Amino acid sequence: MEFEFNEELSDVRGLADQIFSAQADVTHLRTVEQSGGHDAKLWKSLADSDLLGIALPEEAGGAGMGMLGLMAVLEQQGRRVASVPLWSSIAGAALPIAEFGSPEQMSAWLPGLIEGSHIVTGALETGFGSDIPVRAEADGDGWRLHGEIASVPAADVAAALLVPVRLPDGGVAVVLVRTDADGLARTPLSVTSYESSAAVSFDGVSVAAGGVLPGDGAQILAWTVRRARVALASIAIGVCSEALAQTAAYTSQRVQFGRPLSTNQAVAVRAADAYLDTESIRLTTQRAAWLMDLGKEDEAEAAALVAKYWASKGGLRAVHATQHLHGGMGADISYPIHRYFLWGRQIAFSLGSAGAIGTELGDALEKGASIGSPE
Questions:
Q1: Which of 121, 137, 300, 307 could lock onto 291 through a cystine, CB 3.0 to 4.6 A?
Q2: Contact 231, 124 (CB under 8 A)
Q3: Are strands 135-139 and 142-153 parallel, antiparallel or unpaired?
Q4: Is residue 163 classed as helix, strand or coil in its secondary structure?
Q5: What is the distance between the alpha carbons of residues 354 and 348, in angstroms, rounded to a whole number?
Q6: Contacts by 323-332 with C-beta closer than 8 Å and gap 24+?
Q7: How do residues 26-71 score in pLDDT, each as one tens digit?
Q8: What is the H or E stretch that residue 44 is in?
Q9: pLDDT tens track for 239-293
């Protein structure tokens, strides 16, 4: 495994940094948060720079740079805590449509998503394991959906949702549902990170056979959740890295008892621990993304769980530390560091807390899964 990005990936990271730095300053972020939590202008800028299709295969209209390419973009989003639904739209919807979708599904949804004209988001928050909340009843050659998903990122601005559903025989299907469908209702939510989110209810929503992703639904869902978790961990890298950078600057400038806070051993050790947590997220996430891009799905399964565990456990520990090291300023909810703390918490409990992920990882290793060979 290469521990540094190659030239192409470095260029992607640099371009993403330019866009997010220019368009996601603190004042603008507050405005976006107060108006629904989705930055439509920034989303269009990402589309115009060809970054929305960075991870998609070339035959689907993307750049073919896979999960490592997406990781390069998401880290920069995390650094600026920018309110756009990249992880849920690209990892949670676009990638599975490109991988498993029919030609009709791909042509219907991917071009507009890449161009930024519409959003498709994954309704995955409670859609893995045995607790899928949406059930399907047979309706001719299609299905009718019933149930409610408590929180779906960007559902209130999305044109369609990618939804896992429980079939009458206990199996799983993954379906595409237009948000203007009869019987579908969206209720906007205020979530920890202030990003766009909504509860979604299904009251007899009709899905034709053409709306079902072809193939084994359980495998499609596992493949998708794996990538969504690595995408969340990628954002956590940026969140923790920037929170540490701001903390280093603050503790170096803040003088107490005649010397900078950073010269106190307790401060230095706490910051060093947060740095180690951040780098643990980076290395485990990069390894999981690398394995996925190599097509080593069996090894990537455990590697993705390890990355998400570090994003949940180490990431939460890091943002707690950076907020605490700001002292009284860290308790000010209008001060920039507090936003990083909120994003760290949002990521830590999305698609599985550290405890839940640890349980899944233990089960996977017990079945003989490998975190990754040393090659």
A1: 300
A2: no
A3: antiparallel
A4: strand
A5: 7
A6: 323/243, 324/270, 325/247, 325/250, 325/251, 325/261, 325/267, 325/270, 325/271, 326/247, 326/250, 327/254, 327/261, 329/250
A7: 889 999 999 999 999 999 999 999 999 999 999 999 999 999 999 9
A8: helix 40-48
A9: 999 999 999 999 988 887 788 888 888 999 999 999 999 999 999 999 999 999 9
